[in-house]
Each structure stands twice: as C-alpha cells, then as structure tokens.
Specification:
Number of strands: 10
Helix content: 25-40%
Strand order of the largest sheet: 6-7-8-3-9-10
Order of helices and strands: HEEEHEEHEHHHHEHEHEEHH
CATH architecture: 3-Layer(aba) Sandwich
CATH superfamily: P-loop containing nucleotide triphosphate hydrolases
Strand content: 25-35%
Number of domains: 1
Radius of gyration: 19 Å
CATH class: Alpha Beta
Length: 271
C-alpha cells in the first residue's frame, strides 16, 4: 500500500508532519531521543543546533532516508497528513516521491540539464508534456532564464549554485508535497545562497519546506518556525544523545526563547 492522497479535511489542517516521541538509533547507539514536533503546512521550518545534535538524522527520518543506513532504527511515530510513514503497508519509495530531498552538496545526474529534470519524472510515470514540466520546474527553481538556451548541455557544466538549483528543480519535477533541504547552501558562495533563499520564499507558496542549517542568520531570513536541537547526557549511560530543546516561531526562538540553552546558542555562547 502506498501513502494515501490527502483528503480535503486533512489538507485543511495546519499540520503537515507530526513527530510523536521519535527516537532514532544507529545500532545500539541512540542518536536522538524523544522528539515531539508539529511541522506546519505551507511554511519553512528550520532545524538548528550544534554538530552531532541529530538535526540531519531527524530530517532524514521525515522521508525514510535513514532506511538506507544499515542498523538505523526508529521508535515512535512520524505522521504525514495523519498517516504513519513507518507503518508496514507504506511504500518508502512513494514516501520519498511525496517528500523530496535536496542534499548538502549538489549532486546532478551525469546527464543533460533537460534529462536531469525529465529522468526522475519519467521513471515516476509522468505522462504529461515533458517540455512544459522541465520549463515549469526550472522556473520554480529560478534557473530557467540561465539554462533555457543550453538544455542539452551537461548539468555538470553549471556553477555550484546553479547545480544546487538544478537539484531543487529535479525534486520539484516529481511533484512532491514537501521538500527537505539538508544544509543546501553550505557549499555555495553568498550570491548563490541568496538566490536559493529567495527561491525558498517563493516555493513555500506551493510546498512545505524543512531545512537544516548551521547558519543562524539564514534560519532567521527564510524560516517561519525553528527547532533548536541540542546534545544532552543520555539518561541511561555516559553517552551523549540529541534532543529537541525548543520548537517555536522563529521570531520567538531568536528574540524570546524559553530555554536558557536556546538563548546561549542563538547568542553565540556555544555551538
């Protein structure tokens, strides 16, 4: 069974993804413990926190990318439009179509710009006008004007920032509802970063976006909600484990956090 399409009633609700007491382990090492979070629909949600706090691990749990890591296991529930993504009858491939991902480093296919967009759509069964889909996807990724006269050229011929926008266009082309971005600007120059941030403001009109970023200024600029992850002592051992320290409107996280650890982090006292 695949993930069911959203009902009209579900689509009207504010929550897109719900994490309910989610803990994630690699083998016998618990990486993240006890995460509760309601990610709103049609907004940009940012995950921030120091290295090793589990924010990328949680991000990958939202579309079952952690399934591809041997020994990784999840306890708790991850609900998408009210349906448990980890239920036995849910197809993880369909999950990843509905919830797309853009990685830290641009990873275009070794194909033409056109085929980078068309390939994924084609294998996912798209039967519409491919030329129109390619143009629409590139326009949404703010890349059409820069590539419309060289669609037959290799995706590798583009700059790093353009390659990342190509990867975003590729994700858009399979018509997801959610786009996950794992530090999508960390390898890019400031101008390319600005273009992707501007694009995110446009994309949230059509998609729910969740982004992991080490750049707190970026979180302030692009996100509506922010989750601050931290590292704490594991209650049952001397190991450290990631936890969600605080989740709130971005303005509240940066201007009036409830937790002292959040204030210390956003003030630059650690991290």
């Amino acid at each position: 069974m695949t993930v069911s399409a959203s009902s009209t009633a579900t689509a009207a609700t504010a929550t897109c993804l719900s994490l309910q007491d989610v803990s994630i382990s690699y083998g016998d090492h618990e990486a993240v413990r006890g995460v509760y979070m309601e990610i709103p629909r049609g907004k940009v949600t940012a995950f921030i926190g120091p290295s090793g706090c589990g924010k990328s691990t949680v991000l990958r749990a939202l579309n079952r990318m952690n399934d591809l890591i041997e020994g990784c296991s999840l306890r708790g529930r991850v609900l998408f439009d009210g349906q448990d993504l980890y239920a036995r009858n849910v197809d993880p491939v369909e999950v990843r179509r509905r919830i797309g991902m853009v990685f830290q480093k641009p990873n275009p296919f070794p194909k033409s710009i056109y085929e980078n967009i068309a390939f994924g759509a084609r294998i996912n069964g798209y039967r519409g006008d491919m030329d129109e889909l390619v143009e629409r996807s590139l326009r949404k990724a703010a890349l059409w004007e820069e590539t419309k006269d060289k669609l037959s050229e290799s995706g590798y011929a583009l700059s790093g920032g353009q390659q990342q926008r190509l990867c975003i266009a590729r994700a858009i082309a399979i018509e997801p509802e959610v786009i996950l971005m794992d530090e999508p600007c960390s390898a890019l120059d400031p101008i390319s970063t600005l273009k992707i941030e501007e694009m995110m403001h446009e994309l949230k009109k059509s998609y729910t976006i969740v982004i992991v970023t080490h750049n707190m200024q970026q979180a302030v600029r692009v996100s509506d909600m922010t989750g601050f992850f931290n590292v704490t002592a594991h209650p049952d051992s001397d190991r450290k484990v990631g936890c969600l320290e605080e989740f709130a409107d971005t303005e509240a996280i940066f201007n009036a956090p409830r937790q002292q650890a959040t204030l210390d982090y956003v003030s630059g006292r650690f991290g």
